[in-house]
Amino acid sequence: MKRLVLGVVVALAVGGCRGKPEPIRLNGRTLVVENQSAREWRNVTVTVNGYYRGGSTSLAPGGELDAGLSTLVTGFGQKFDPGRESVHTVEVRATDASGQPVSLDWSDRRQEAK
What we know:
Elements: H1 2-16, E1 24-27, E2 30-34, E3 41-48, E4 52-59, E5 64-68, E6 89-96, E7 101-107, H2 108-113
Antiparallel strand pairs: 1-2, 2-5, 3-4, 3-6, 6-7
Protein backbone atom coordinates (compact mmCIF):
# COMPACT_ATOMS: atom_id res chain seq x y z
CA MET A 1 0.00 0.00 0.00
CA LYS A 2 2.85 2.39 0.83
CA ARG A 3 4.40 1.76 -2.59
CA LEU A 4 1.11 2.55 -4.32
CA VAL A 5 0.74 5.82 -2.42
CA LEU A 6 4.38 6.71 -3.11
CA GLY A 7 3.88 5.93 -6.81
CA VAL A 8 0.83 8.18 -7.03
CA VAL A 9 2.66 11.01 -5.23
CA VAL A 10 5.66 10.72 -7.57
CA ALA A 11 3.41 10.64 -10.65
CA LEU A 12 1.57 13.76 -9.52
CA ALA A 13 4.82 15.54 -8.73
CA VAL A 14 6.30 14.75 -12.14
CA GLY A 15 3.09 15.77 -13.92
CA GLY A 16 3.00 19.04 -11.99
CA CYS A 17 6.55 19.94 -13.05
CA ARG A 18 5.62 20.28 -16.70
CA GLY A 19 4.36 23.82 -16.19
CA LYS A 20 2.15 25.86 -18.47
CA PRO A 21 2.53 25.64 -22.22
CA GLU A 22 4.01 28.65 -24.01
CA PRO A 23 1.39 31.36 -24.70
CA ILE A 24 2.35 31.36 -28.41
CA ARG A 25 2.55 27.95 -30.07
CA LEU A 26 2.69 26.51 -33.57
CA ASN A 27 0.51 23.46 -34.04
CA GLY A 28 1.07 22.29 -37.60
CA ARG A 29 -0.43 24.97 -39.83
CA THR A 30 -2.23 26.65 -36.95
CA LEU A 31 -0.92 29.41 -34.72
CA VAL A 32 -2.26 29.28 -31.14
CA VAL A 33 -2.23 32.34 -28.88
CA GLU A 34 -3.36 31.70 -25.30
CA ASN A 35 -4.42 34.43 -22.87
CA GLN A 36 -2.79 33.14 -19.69
CA SER A 37 -3.75 36.25 -17.73
CA ALA A 38 -6.77 36.88 -15.52
CA ARG A 39 -8.06 39.74 -17.70
CA GLU A 40 -9.77 39.91 -21.07
CA TRP A 41 -7.65 41.13 -23.98
CA ARG A 42 -9.18 43.54 -26.49
CA ASN A 43 -8.18 44.45 -30.04
CA VAL A 44 -5.79 41.51 -30.34
CA THR A 45 -3.42 41.77 -33.30
CA VAL A 46 -1.14 38.91 -34.37
CA THR A 47 1.72 39.69 -36.76
CA VAL A 48 3.78 36.89 -38.33
CA ASN A 49 7.20 37.58 -39.85
CA GLY A 50 6.55 41.32 -39.66
CA TYR A 51 4.09 41.26 -42.59
CA TYR A 52 1.16 38.91 -42.15
CA ARG A 53 -1.64 39.91 -39.78
CA GLY A 54 -4.73 38.54 -38.16
CA GLY A 55 -6.47 38.94 -34.86
CA SER A 56 -9.61 39.16 -32.82
CA THR A 57 -11.69 41.85 -31.14
CA SER A 58 -11.29 40.07 -27.79
CA LEU A 59 -9.74 37.06 -26.08
CA ALA A 60 -11.15 35.87 -22.76
CA PRO A 61 -8.92 34.95 -19.80
CA GLY A 62 -7.70 31.39 -20.35
CA GLY A 63 -9.02 31.51 -23.92
CA GLU A 64 -7.16 30.53 -27.06
CA LEU A 65 -7.04 32.20 -30.44
CA ASP A 66 -6.49 29.52 -33.09
CA ALA A 67 -5.46 31.09 -36.39
CA GLY A 68 -4.86 29.06 -39.50
CA LEU A 69 -1.63 30.40 -40.99
CA SER A 70 -3.23 30.66 -44.44
CA THR A 71 -5.81 33.13 -43.06
CA LEU A 72 -3.11 35.70 -42.23
CA VAL A 73 -2.73 38.46 -44.84
CA THR A 74 -0.50 41.43 -45.61
CA GLY A 75 -1.78 44.97 -46.02
CA PHE A 76 -1.90 44.26 -49.77
CA GLY A 77 -4.06 41.15 -49.34
CA GLN A 78 -1.34 38.54 -49.90
CA LYS A 79 -1.97 35.40 -47.86
CA PHE A 80 0.64 33.50 -45.88
CA ASP A 81 1.48 30.26 -47.71
CA PRO A 82 2.56 27.64 -45.13
CA GLY A 83 3.67 25.36 -47.98
CA ARG A 84 6.29 27.88 -49.09
CA GLU A 85 7.04 29.93 -45.97
CA SER A 86 8.07 29.27 -42.39
CA VAL A 87 7.10 31.19 -39.29
CA HIS A 88 10.13 33.00 -37.87
CA THR A 89 8.59 35.63 -35.61
CA VAL A 90 5.20 36.24 -33.99
CA GLU A 91 4.14 39.46 -32.28
CA VAL A 92 0.92 39.71 -30.28
CA ARG A 93 -0.36 43.13 -29.27
CA ALA A 94 -3.55 43.90 -27.35
CA THR A 95 -4.98 45.96 -24.52
CA ASP A 96 -6.24 44.28 -21.36
CA ALA A 97 -9.54 45.11 -19.67
CA SER A 98 -7.86 47.72 -17.44
CA GLY A 99 -6.37 49.53 -20.46
CA GLN A 100 -2.82 48.21 -20.00
CA PRO A 101 -0.89 47.12 -23.10
CA VAL A 102 -0.27 43.43 -23.72
CA SER A 103 2.84 42.45 -25.67
CA LEU A 104 3.99 38.89 -26.42
CA ASP A 105 6.80 37.91 -28.78
CA TRP A 106 7.91 34.56 -30.16
CA SER A 107 10.92 33.76 -32.31
CA ASP A 108 12.13 30.52 -33.86
CA ARG A 109 15.65 31.54 -32.79
CA ARG A 110 14.56 31.51 -29.16
CA GLN A 111 13.07 28.05 -29.66
CA GLU A 112 16.36 26.75 -31.10
CA ALA A 113 18.24 27.99 -27.99
CA LYS A 114 16.13 25.84 -25.64
